[in-house]
Design brief:
Blueprint lengths: L1 E6 L6 H5 L9 H12 L6 H11 L7 H11 L4 H4 L17 E6 L10 E6 L8 E8 L4 E7 L16
Antiparallel strand pairs: 1-2, 2-3, 3-4, 4-5
């Protein structure tokens, strides 16, 4: 199954993130889409993105290790999260179309047990889909972020590639 989400802007604060209708977090698709949307702001304000991700993690907060992981994966590579949105290409430096549109998919192996899900997203800079792990909180029915597994390297933008 695929779910496509469209956003008019990238949130710059947890308050803006919480005003989006997808923030109901009632499906793992919505939580995955909001995670990548929030990550698009990382180059501008890492602290605000950590705050947004803490919100998406529900009862957990990002560990020091997870924060360092983001810093390692996104420092100087702010194009990675944007590469998952429609219109982003290697040639245009992964600049997505506006409004921002992202498709999140599941597959037959996405639900290993009742309260966990692995969602898949496609980057314009990778040959295969990448994943995010989520967990459902049964008392609220909401899906929360567990692990961002989609930030491994992708093809660098053409403008930065000396071999392009």
């Amino acid at each position: 199954m695929k779910n496509t989400f469209t956003f008019s802007a990238i949130p710059t604060s947890v308050e803006q993130l919480q005003t989006l209708p997808e923030h109901s977090l009632d499906t793992p698709f919505k939580t995955a889409a909001l995670t990548l949307l929030a990550l698009c702001h990382y180059q501008n304000d890492p602290a605000a993105v950590i705050e947004m991700l803490n919100d998406l993690k529900g009862p957990d907060n990002m560990s020091v290790f997870e924060q360092q992981f983001l810093r390692d994966r996104l420092s100087g590579k702010g194009y990675k999260p944007a590469s998952y949105f429609a219109g982003a290409t290697v040639e245009n430096g992964y600049t997505p179309s506006v409004p921002y549109t992202i498709t999140v998919e599941d597959n037959p192996y996405s639900y290993p047990d009742a309260n966990y899900a692995t969602m898949w997203v496609r980057s314009a800079g990778a040959d295969s889909p990448r994943s995010l792990r989520l967990r459902k909180k049964p008392s609220t029915g909401q899906w929360f972020l567990v692990e961002i597994q989609c930030l491994s390297d992708i093809r660098i933008p053409a403008a930065e590639d000396p071999w392009a």
